[in-house]
Amino acid sequence: MNTLKKAFEILDFIVKNPGDVSVSEIAEKFNMSVSNAYKYMIVLEEKGFVLRKKDKRYVPGYKLIEYGSFVLRRFNIRDIAHDHLVDIMKRTGETVHLILKDGFEGVYIDKVEGEQSIPMVSRLGMKVDLYSTASGKSILAFVPEKELKEYLKIVELKPKTPNTITNPRVLKRELEKIRKRGYAVDNEENEIGIMCVGVPIFDHNGYPVAGVSISGVARKFTEEKIEEYSDVLKEKAEEISRKLGY
């Protein structure tokens, strides 16, 4: 218990420090040896709570942004986004999903059925893989590089359909394309017969906390439709992101 308490005290010190911090400064602050201080920093860095710079000094890590964003937004992002989802459905006639990033997964937190409802596996509260969905890939495309590397190291890219991307190198190339064009396409990668277009939603720190997507029958998703849907999604996602402080 004392070890855990000390780890939180060290993390608190780093977060509140106006500049970066060295291991020797931590050792001096907490009256411990440099070797013991380094052991704490190894664990905090591995978990993403701190980031070690090239000069071997430490700053707060991306995990704090992720946790903070999740806590701040999980209870109100649906309320902020819902009317926009309804508008997307009215303009396209297709089903619209909102997923919230939850660690290395996503969670469906809202769904607006299209004019012609089609059977889909999605349901509110259901966990979803990021690598096989349009919303999920759009989120992955904009997370920090260090987080993406950790994701690809930890998450097994299991095939959901014959179209699922299961090669990390191929997925990285796909994410680069998504970053350039601003939207992702799920080409029957999560569910056969269903195609989706998705874009990220950013919080006040510029972190992709959620994703919104349009889903429908694959045969209807021509190149023209994909472009049309992506424009609508980007417009509405920008509005939602602004309301989140982006």
Automatic annotation (TrEMBL):
It comes from Thermotoga petrophila (strain ATCC BAA-488 / DSM 13995 / JCM 10881 / RKU-1). It comes from the Bacteria. Gene3D superfamilies: 3.30.450.40, Single helix bin, Winged helix-like DNA-binding domain superfamily/Winged helix DNA-binding domain. One of its GO terms (biological process) is negative regulation of DNA-templated transcription. Residues 63-246 form the IclR-ED domain. Transmembrane segments: none annotated. The keyword DNA-binding applies. SUPFAM superfamilies: GAF domain-like (SSF55781), Winged helix' DNA-binding domain (SSF46785). This is Transcriptional regulator IclR-like protein. SMART domains: HTH_ICLR (SM00346). Keywords: DNA-binding, Repressor, Transcription, Transcription regulation. The keyword Transcription applies. InterPro entries: ArsR-like_HTH, GAF-like_dom_sf, HTH_MetabolicPath_Reg, Tscrpt_reg_IclR_C, Tscrpt_reg_IclR_N, WH-like_DNA-bd_sf, WH_DNA-bd_sf. Pfam families: HTH_IclR, IclR_C. Residues 1-62 form the HTH iclR-type domain. One of its GO terms (molecular function) is DNA binding.
